[in-house]
Specification:
The chain is of the alpha/beta class. The protein has 3 domains: 47 residues, Transferase, Pyrimidine Nucleoside Phosphorylase, Chain A, domain 3; 253 residues, Pyrimidine Nucleoside Phosphorylase, Chain A, domain 2 (3-Layer(aba) Sandwich), CATH 3.40.1030; 88 residues, Alpha-Beta Complex (Aldehyde Oxidoreductase, domain 3), CATH 3.90.1170.30. Helix content is 44%, strand content 14%. It contains 16 helices and 13 strands. Helix 10 links the parallel strand 4 and strand 5. Helix 2 packs parallel to helix 4 and helix 15 packs antiparallel against helix 16. The chain is globular, with a radius of gyration of 21 Å. The model has no long low-confidence stretch (mean pLDDT 93).
Length: 438
């Protein structure tokens, strides 16, 4: 049946429910280039303001999945995946996948590029010399068998509807829409064949979700959508008011991830990685004992088997595995611009979103769909909310290849940090874990 696209946009703008047939028509016509991008952009904004109910979200997710191929694995494969809703400095997938694979699970992962102020896992991985993420299903399966995990981009075959709409969301101000987030995440995670999913749902200034109330709404939508389509989901709510780890930027985050797997325990990275790994091992059935799962995680880091899994993954996907021994093989920037504190006190707040946007100015993220990334650019910033700083102290570094832009980024970066005269308590990283939604 034919519909008028303008009428459907207006219907959703006014908060009315779209039928599955109407959603299928609109998405299908867009994929066939019969609906232009400006109308798709208008529909995304209409969804942003008009919302979608759970029935519409399930329909949108199914239509995304139906737009391409669907991969399946035997239940004995113990497949599990993790998804993060995105945050500044969030490189957790890079050490997490090899850790869980080294413990015996299989991780089929279709990942995305940067959205808004946050970096994308694919962009980070592609900073490794030679590494590719555009592979077909046959290669995907082969890599999972060889290394225990594979991380690839959305191809024309796998969830093509989301691949196109995902990129459009990034440049139309609709990234934060809960229905669009839900359909995007769940379509990829179901289509890739993972039977179990752990979601790292980030809350705070550096996340797309700023409040716990909204985070819980999204968590429920994700879990219920997964459940309706046959996937078990656990949600870990984590604080994203401070950037994760010490480095922000594509190659810099790969460097930090490798150093972590080499044994350098960065407190917040270790806390979150271990928490997510335990939930993945429990959900996939590798073990039902959380204490044992924690011991398994520690062991594969200490004995080097997790780093070896990462090495195999990099080699499989045409990258230079020697980066696992020498992180200096990763792209390096020409200039290092110091970030200096102009007063003493305690860090009371960090606008991590503003930090993310400041680094886009030096090429660490995209302004438009065709923006070229500078893989080497980014920042070093080890401070967290609650840390004490002294006037004149170097609290961070901007890495860049254009000095003037780097100095401007350093100023914007520092302007995003709030320093108080009074002592400020540290924030708890793991807020709560929910696996049983009623």
């Amino acid at each position: 049946m034919e519909y008028n696209p303008v009428e459907l946009i207006i219907k959703k703008r006014d908060g009315e429910e779209l039928t599955k047939e109407e959603i299928r028509f609109f998405i299908g016509k867009y994929l066939n280039n019969e609906i232009p991008e400006y109308q798709m952009s208008a529909m995304l904004m209409a969804i942003f303001f008009g919302e979608m109910n759970p029935k519409e979200i399930q329909a949108l997710t199914e239509i995304y999945i139906e737009s391409g191929a669907r991969i399946s694995f035997d239940k004995s494969a113990k497949t599990v995946d993790k998804h993060s809703t995105g945050g500044v400095g969030d490189k957790i997938t890079i050490p997490l996948a090899p850790i869980v694979a080294a413990c015996g699970a299989k991780i089929p992962m279709i990942s995305g590029r940067g959205l808004g102020h946050t970096g994308g896992t694919l962009d980070k991985l592609e900073s490794i010399p030679g590494l590719r993420t555009n592979y077909n299903e046959e290669d995907f399966r082969k890599f999972i068998n060889l290394a225990g995990f594979s991380i690839i981009s959305q191809s024309d075959e796998l969830v093509p509807a989301d691949r196109r709409i995902y990129a459009l969301r990034d440049v139309t101000g609709t990234v934060e829409s809960l229905p669009l987030i839900t359909a995007s995440i769940m379509s990829k995670k179901i289509a890739e064949g993972a039977q179990n999913l752990v979601i790292d749902l980030k809350v705070g200034s550096g996340a797309f979700i700023k409040t716990m109330d909204k985070a819980e709404r999204l968590g429920r939508l994700l879990a219920k959508t997964g459940e309706s389509l046959g996937q078990k989901v656990t949600v870990v709510f984590s604080d994203m008011n401070s950037p994760l780890g010490h480095y922000i930027g594509n190659a810099l985050e790969v460097k930090e991830s490798i150093e972590y797997l080499q044994g350098k325990r960065i407190p917040d990275i270790h806390n979150l990685t271990k928490t997510l790994a335990i939930e993945m091992l429990i959900l996939s059935g590798i073990t039902s004992d959380k204490e044992k799962a924690g011991e398994m995680v520690e062991k594969v880091i200490d004995d080097g088997s997790a780093l070896e899994c990462l090495r195999r993954f990099i080699k499989n996907q045409n990258g230079n595995p020697e980066v696992c021994d020498d992180v200096n093989l990763l792209p390096r920037a020409k200039f290092e611009i110091p970030i200096i504190a102009d007063k003493s006190g305690w860090i009371s707040g960090i606008n991590s979103q503003q930090i993310g946007f400041s680094l886009i100015e030096i090429g660490a993220g995209r302004k438009t769909l065709d923006s070229q990334l500078d893989y080497s650019s980014g920042a070093y910033f080890p401070k967290k909310i609650g840390d004490k700083v002294a006037e004149g102290e170097e609290i961070g570094i901007i890495f860049c290849n254009e000095e003037t832009q780097g100095k401007q980024a350093a100023k914007k970066f520092y302007d995003s940090i709030h320093i108080s005269d009074r002592k400020v308590p540290f924030k708890q990283l793991i807020i709560k874990i929910t696996s049983n939604w009623t």
